[in-house]
Amino acid sequence: MNFLENIFSRLEQAAGRVLLAEAHAGGDRTATGTQLLRQVAAARAYLRASGLGRGDRCALVAPNSIRWTALDLAIIAEGLIAVPLYARQAPAELVAMMRDAGVKLICCGDTALRDSIAGTWTDASRFALFDDIFATPAPGTLFPPADLRPEDTVAILYTSGTSGEAKGVMLTVGNIDHMVSCTTARLNELMEPRNVPDRVFHYLPFCFAGSWILLLSCLSRESLLTLSMDLARLADDIRAAAPNYVLNVPTLLERIRSGVEDNIRKRGGAIANIFSRARDAWSRLDEKKPHPWDFFWLGLAGVIIFPSIRKRLGPNLRALICGSAPLARETQLFFMMLGIPVLQVYGLTETTAICTMDDPRHIDPGFVGPAIPGVEMKVGESSEILARGPNIFPGYWNRPEQTAQVLREGWFHTGDQGEVNANGNWRVTGRLKNLIILNSGHNIAPEPIEEELLRALRGAQQVVLVGNGRSFLAAIITGEVAQREIDSQIERLNATLPHYRKIRMFHAVRESFTIENGLLTANGKLKRDAIAARYGVEIEQMYAKTGA
What pLDDT, on the 0 to 100 scale, is given for residue 80? Predict the structure, then answer.
C-alpha cells in the first residue's frame, strides 16, 4: 500500500472524526474523513472532465486550506503531477515556474490570484477556480486512485532559488512512501504514550517540502491538523488549537524567545531577577560548570515563572519542531530550560524535505539529529554534506545537466557544510555557495558570524556579510538599531574572532529584506546575490573608505 492508498484508507476509517480544521475568527471550519473524501471525489470529477492525461502537470496556487488538501490528493489520485506554488510570490516568478513545468491547468484559490497571473501570462494554460472545482457534483461511487508505481513522479516542488532561477524538484511515490514512514515513526515516539489523536497546528505554506510532508504525515496517522488562516492571529489561534506540536522556522522561535525575555525585562522586580538568575544557571549547567545555588534558582523559576510561559504557548505542547535553517543553539536551550523540547530537522527539497531528525528521547542541542532510517550521510570535500537513500529525488525537471552536477556516483551533493559527532548527530555549519573568499585566500562561512551579531543586536532584522575578493568583511544590517549599539556589539564580537573574520565596516538600513522587495526567497531565505546587487553602491562606498 503506497502513501496515497494509506491516506484514503485512513479517511474511510475516520469517517465521522474531524481531521482538518481552518482557524477563522468566527469559529473553525472543519472536515471529517467522509467530508474530505467527498471533496477529493468532486475535485477528481472536475479534473477528469478537463481532459487531462496521466503525467500532465497541474499548478496549485492558493493559501493553505481544506480544499487545497483535497485538490492536492485528487491531482495525485488521477495520475497527474501536482505543482504547488507559493501564492504570495510575484506573478512573474510564478509564471516562470509554471512555464518551466509546462502546466496544463492552473488551479487558483480566488479570482485575484487568477487575474494577477493572467495579466502576466497572456497565453497561459486554462485556469480553474476552487469555487468551480468543488462545485462539481461528486460521483456516487468513489474511484480507486490511479495505479502508481514507486518511480512515478507525483509532484514538482520548486526550490527557493537563493542565488538564481528556481528549479523544479521531482518527487516520486517511493520518495514519499519512505519519508512518511520515517516521520510517522518519529511522531509515534514523541507522542508515547498515545491514547488520543495528535493535535497539530500549522502555519507554513504546503508548497514547501517539509510543510507538505507534515500534511501527508498527519493524514497518515490519527491527527487533528488545524491550519492558520490569518498570520495576524497566529498567537491566539495556537492557544485555541492547544497543539501537541508545531512545525516552525527559526525566525518565529527567535521572536518568541525575544518576546518572552523582553516582557520579563520590562516587568522588572523579583520576577526579572529570578528569571535572569535561572537563565545564567541553565547556561552554566550546559557548560558543566554549575554553581552551588544554580539548582535553587532553576527550581524556583520552574515553580513560579516557567509554567505560565508554557501555558501561554500551549498546555498540551510536547515539542516544537524546527526546520528550514539551523536554529541558534542558545534558542534551543532557552526552550529546553522552559521544559519545551525543540526537535530539529535538516533536509532539502531534493531529499524529500528531510535527511536528519532529532530523536525526542536524545536531543543534542545545536545539532539537527541523526540520519533517518535508510539514509546514509557523509562529509565530502570542503566539509560538504553528502547523502544517499530512498529519500533522494530522481532529478530536476527538464534539467539534466544541473541534475548531473548534484547527483554524482550515487551521492546527492547538498551544497551544505557540516559535521557529525560521536553520537551520529549532525550539525550544519554553512552553505558552500555562501562562502566568502577574501583576497588573502581565507574562506569564511558567513552564517555563524551573522547569527551571532543578529542575536546581539536588539531591533535588528537581518545581518548579511559581504567581502568576496576583498581584504576584509563588511556587514549590511537591517532594522531599527542605533549606530552606537552596532559599533559596540561588533567590537565585542570582533574581540572573539581571528583577524580575517573580523567585521571592519557596516552599512545600516531601516527597511528589512522581504519577499515583496525581492530580497528574500519564498521561504524566507536571504537572496544574497540580489542583496549585493541592490546595495552595490553602498558596498563600494564601505570599501572605498579604506581603499580595500
Answer: 98
- DSSP structural state of residue 340: -
Q: Which three cell numbers stand for residue 160?
A: 527557493
Alpha helices (H) in 14-107, listed in sequence order: 33-49, 66-77, 91-101
Domain residue spans of the chain: 3-230, 250-315+317-432, 435-544
- Contact status, residue 436 vs residue 444, Cβ threshold 8 Å: yes
CB 475 within 8 A of CB 444: no
How far is 543 from 548, CA to CA, in rounded Å?
5
- Does pTM surpass 0.90? no
CA dist., res. 125 & res. 106, Å (int): 7
Q: Categorize the per-residue pLDDT at 161 as very low, low, confident or very high, splitting at 50, 70 and 90.
A: low
**Which H or E element spans position 446?**
helix 446-456
- CB within 8 Å of 257: residues ≥ 6 apart: 331, 334, 335
| 3-230 shares its CATH topology with 435-544 | no
DSSP 291-313: -TTHHHHHHHHHHHTHHHHHHHH
How far is Cα 215 from Cα 200, in angstroms, rounded to an integer? 10
Which residue matches cell numbers 461528486?
A: 138
Gap between the Cα atoms of 530 and 160, Å rounded: 13
DSSP one-letter code for 520: B
Write out pLDDT tens, residues 131-148.
Answer: 999 998 888 777 889 999
- Average pLDDT for 508-533: 86
CATH level 3 topology of 3-230:
Rossmann fold (3.40.50)
Question: What architecture (CATH level 2) is domain 250-315+317-432?
Answer: 3-Layer(aba) Sandwich (3.40)
The CATH classification number of 435-544 equals 3.30.300.30
